Please model this.
Amino acid sequence: METTPAPVVRTIAQAALLVLAAPLVTGYVQKLKARLQCRAGASVWQPYRDLSKLLRKGTVQSDTATPFFRAIPVLVLAATATATAMLPVLWAPAGATVPLGDAILLVGLLALARFLLAVGALDAGGAFGGMGASREMTVGLLVEPALMLTVFSVAVSAGTTDVNLLAARRAPLLLSWTAPDLLALFGMLILALAETGRIPVDNPDTHLELTMLHEGMLLEHSGPGLACIALATHVKQLVTLTLVAALFLPVGLARDASPPAIALALAAFAAKVLALATFLGLVESSYAKLRFFRVPQFLGLGLVCAFLALALRVL
Amino acid sequence: MSVALAARLIDVLGGLLLFTMLLILAAGQVFRAIYAVAAQAVFLGIAGAVLAAATGNVDLWIIAFITIVAKAIVLPWLLIRVVRRVQISREIEPVIPVHLTLTLAAGIVVLAFHLNASLGPVRQTVTGNALPVGVTLILIGVLVMASRRKALVQMVGLFASENGIFFTAMAISQGMPLIIEIGVILDVVLGALVMGILVLRVRSSVDTDIADLESLKG
Model:
């Protein structure tokens, strides 16, 4: 126990890792998609280059936007980055954790980021922004309750809503998966596609079509502000994937701070995220984007899976 | 294989069966529903094999094998052939909206599991959730038959319902006698053949939809 680093150090290290590695995951998915389309594709480091380019650009702002519009990107990034602090990445604490918050706060912070983005899009006064915001909130309405139900379903089995403790308690139970776990996992994978803005629900590559959800809200942002939001989008994607990994595959988490244990934990984390990112890329390459009015049907499947996962756990 | 391990595996397979059932309900296209019911039959066959290994019942091995061959390969192949032949639109035409059917299905699952509590005295070979999962599959299969307009998707519902009956029988009685199981599977195959031929003939001679037959009622 003495060798475990202080909870604060642990939390900061994990959050920093998540924020720094987030663009790499997006880069990997884009590279995978390019390879599946028989293109060479941009390097996996491309998202970092885009971010550094945006940070060096100036900002142009809509005339109708209020001063609050300037604060939106920073607030969105702050809310998303705070969410990273609640996830177990490398360590599964045996004892004390930083009492930052639990899975409910995590989902709440993601919802806050979504809300701020929508407010910013409406504030700028563009038609695309308003439409994107309306659609994004519709999707959020379906995703967030289902996400909560999934988290609750797992939390009931572990007896806590703190994701760190949850992962630590479930790690030894990995091979005793039951039916509710499976249903929750399937529901979560469907929700992850929506939450990361991937193809059956949203198309992350499109910028000038009426089909876009998330990108529509970004149109009025530019320069460093756009960089903040782009980074927040990458981080949100990695947070979602890490949440799936923490809830359902909490293996390989280190118990202490010895270098071999950390290296093993890092490798396990990379493998889990790689597998989930590959899932995202494969789905995105093999499915067409759904018509928007079909999205509730697709997400309804996730919602029903999540509901049943909780119902079967309780009944 | 120990009985406890078998019970856990059957429980997990029950979860997979439920998920494939939801996939059948949520499928927007005929092909997806057919693939989902094929996957369901595969899981059912695996469940039969697990039970066979746990109880040492040789008949169950044969039944599991026949299930996978007949329900996961032959029947879906037949259905896909019919769909290709009649060149119907691939969209599923629901009578009531799909998300409403999904909600109904969630209610059915909760009811079936609630009912399970009052079925306590029923002797089960596999303790756990096998019985309510079987009941759920039967009821949702009927729901699919009732809420879809296309005859082919109604057949998918029938197969799913049959899978449920099979799973329930396995959960309660270690599987029915071999001769009955073979008879039931032959029945289903025959039913599928008759329905497939009927769909083809109806299509080629009068070019109509099953729902149009309603107007023939006196």
Notes: The mean pLDDT of chain A is 88. The interface with chain B takes residues 176-183, 186, 294, 296-298, 300-301, 303-305, 307-308, 311-312, 315 of chain A (CB under 8 Å). The CA atoms of residues 127 and 158 of chain A lie 46 Å apart. Residues 127-158 of chain A form the longest helix (32 residues).
